[in-house]
């Protein structure tokens, strides 16, 4: 069917897309939280699924993190991690996601006595099955919690490194998440340097609640390959110019920004402005179970709120592929498919 005639939903769904900013613990749906709590005999302070879902009203990042860390307490066994992760793959399969780079927070689990190996094994089973059965590839971003100490991040790295070889098909990157304000990038400069020496790709949350300075610091001190969020970069025009020049990707999460009150109204979101200036922005879901939408919902809400053209939606999908850590030869077929969609658009416009 000519590209212009399909619904916006179908159009976005058909575009090959990579999700680059996704916390696997943020995909735990309330139904699964209750199921796992019952199976693992963990008491929950909510009467039922609806009451828990009704609590998903946040005033800022910290108010979300409190609930998010509490929800993750139901994850105990390898099967729990597998079920959570495979449910995410089934869901993004419907959205036309072809590749995903998944963040996980080992400290949330190891601090409760869950072995690092349990987390790795559960995630890996789901990721390898998703590749075989759904054709979705994935990589992992092991993320440090920035409200904890540098020493704790080093300990976590040491606990994980013996598993690196067995999971070398998946674990290739390091991330930094949790409470941003008061936990600047420089706190983790040394552990990032070690990770760089070890050959990991590097990303970090910056410029979500924290200032534009944290984005510059993540680029210059942590030497990241991508910035997670980065929407507050706009407060520093020189930084924006540097991001355009270096084509540093920003993994933007619109529904997250709305739910955590980083923006008051999606019609004022700066995604389109950044895209039109030439910043390499991508669209992602962050913690879809908590923020009310998976990746396709995020594209849709931006298309509708910011009046994005179909050519711009193709550009966002293209950015997601080229900003991924997939090798060039794996990116190529997706980029060719996006070229095809663009040609269809051009054809439709010349015929109109
Ligand atoms: N952990 C999970 N989601 C996060 C977010 N949006 N910001 C920081 N840390 C997070
Ligand atoms: Zn995030």
TrEMBL record:
<keyword id="KW-0378">Hydrolase</keyword>
<protein>
    <recommendedName>
        <fullName>Adenine deaminase</fullName>
        <ecNumber>3.5.4.2</ecNumber>
    </recommendedName>
</protein>
<feature type="site" description="Important for catalytic activity">
    <location>
        <position position="229"/>
    </location>
</feature>
<feature type="binding site">
    <location>
        <position position="286"/>
    </location>
    <ligand>
        <name>Zn(2+)</name>
    </ligand>
</feature>
<dbReference type="GO" id="GO:0000034">
    <property type="term" value="F:adenine deaminase activity"/>
</dbReference>
<dbReference type="GO" id="GO:0043103">
    <property type="term" value="P:hypoxanthine salvage"/>
</dbReference>
<feature type="binding site">
    <location>
        <position position="287"/>
    </location>
    <ligand>
        <name>substrate</name>
    </ligand>
</feature>
<dbReference type="GO" id="GO:0008270">
    <property type="term" value="F:zinc ion binding"/>
</dbReference>
<dbReference type="GO" id="GO:0005829">
    <property type="term" value="C:cytosol"/>
</dbReference>
<dbReference type="InterPro" id="IPR006330">
    <property type="entry name" value="Ado/ade_deaminase"/>
</dbReference>
<comment type="function">
    <text>Catalyzes the hydrolytic deamination of adenine to hypoxanthine. Plays an important role in the purine salvage pathway and in nitrogen catabolism.</text>
</comment>
<feature type="binding site">
    <location>
        <position position="23"/>
    </location>
    <ligand>
        <name>Zn(2+)</name>
    </ligand>
</feature>
<dbReference type="Pfam" id="PF00962">
    <property type="entry name" value="A_deaminase"/>
</dbReference>
<keyword id="KW-0546">Nucleotide metabolism</keyword>
<dbReference type="InterPro" id="IPR001365">
    <property type="entry name" value="A_deaminase_dom"/>
</dbReference>
<keyword id="KW-0862">Zinc</keyword>
<feature type="binding site">
    <location>
        <position position="21"/>
    </location>
    <ligand>
        <name>Zn(2+)</name>
    </ligand>
</feature>
<dbReference type="GO" id="GO:0009117">
    <property type="term" value="P:nucleotide metabolic process"/>
</dbReference>
<feature type="active site" description="Proton donor">
    <location>
        <position position="208"/>
    </location>
</feature>
<keyword id="KW-0479">Metal-binding</keyword>
<feature type="domain" description="Adenosine deaminase">
    <location>
        <begin position="16"/>
        <end position="339"/>
    </location>
</feature>
<dbReference type="InterPro" id="IPR032466">
    <property type="entry name" value="Metal_Hydrolase"/>
</dbReference>
<comment type="similarity">
    <text>Belongs to the metallo-dependent hydrolases superfamily. Adenosine and AMP deaminases family. Adenine deaminase type 2 subfamily.</text>
</comment>
<dbReference type="GO" id="GO:0006146">
    <property type="term" value="P:adenine catabolic process"/>
</dbReference>
<feature type="binding site">
    <location>
        <position position="205"/>
    </location>
    <ligand>
        <name>Zn(2+)</name>
    </ligand>
</feature>
<dbReference type="InterPro" id="IPR028892">
    <property type="entry name" value="ADE"/>
</dbReference>
């Amino acid at each position: 069917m000519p590209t212009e005639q399909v619904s916006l939903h179908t159009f976005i769904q058909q575009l090959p897309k990579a999700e680059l900013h996704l916390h696997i613990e943020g995909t735990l749906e309330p139904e699964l939280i209750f199921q796992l709590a019952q199976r693992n005999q963990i008491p929950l302070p909510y009467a039922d699924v609806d009451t828990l879902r009704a609590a998903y009203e946040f005033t800022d990042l910290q108010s979300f993190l409190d609930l998010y860390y509490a929800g993750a307490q139901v994850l105990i066994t390898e099967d729990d991690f597998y079920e959570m992760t495979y449910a995410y793959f089934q869901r993004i399969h419907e959205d036309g996601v072809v590749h995903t780079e998944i963040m996980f927070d080992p400290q949330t689990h190891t601090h409760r006595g869950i072995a690092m190996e349990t987390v790795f094994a559960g995630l890996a089973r789901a990721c390898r099955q998703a590749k075989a059965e759904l054709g979705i590839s994935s990589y992992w971003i092991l993320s440090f919690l920035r409200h904890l100490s540098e020493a704790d991040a080093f300990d976590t790295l040491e606990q994980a490194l013996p598993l690196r070889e067995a999971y070398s098909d998946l674990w290739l990157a390091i991330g930094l998440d949790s409470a941003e304000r008061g936990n600047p990038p420089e706190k983790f400069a040394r552990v990032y340097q070690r990770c760089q020496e070890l050959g990991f790709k590097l990303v970090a949350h910056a410029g979500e609640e924290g200032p534009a300075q944290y984005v510059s610091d993540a680029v210059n001190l942590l030497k990241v390959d991508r910035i997670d969020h980065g929407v507050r970069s706009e407060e520093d025009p020189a930084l924006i110019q540097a991001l355009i020049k270096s084509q540093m990707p920003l993994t933007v999460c619109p529904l997250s920004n709305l739910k955590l009150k980083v923006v008051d109204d999606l019609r004022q979101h700066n995604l389109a402005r950044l895209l039109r200036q030439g910043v390499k922005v991508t669209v992602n879901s962050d913690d879809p179970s908590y923020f009310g939408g998976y990746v396709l919902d995020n594209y849709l809400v931006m298309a509708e709120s910011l009046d994005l053209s179909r050519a711009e939606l193709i550009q966002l999908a293209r950015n997601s592929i080229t900003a991924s850590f997939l090798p060039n030869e794996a990116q190529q077929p997706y980029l060719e498919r996006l070229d095809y969609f663009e040609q269809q658009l051009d054809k439709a416009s010349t015929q109109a």
